[in-house]
Amino acid sequence: MSLIDASSLTLMLAAHDDWMKSQGARGQLLTMTGCAVAGGDFRRAILDSVDFSKTDLKDCDFSEARLNTCRFTDARLNGCTLTGAELVDAMFNRSRVTGCVIGAANLRGSFWLKAELTGLDLSQALMDGAQFDGCTFNDIVWPATLPGMLRLHDCRGDLP
Question: Which strands sit side by side in the sheet containing 156-157, from one edge to the other?
Answer without folding.
Answer: 36-38, 56-58, 76-78, 96-98, 116-121, 136-141, 156-157
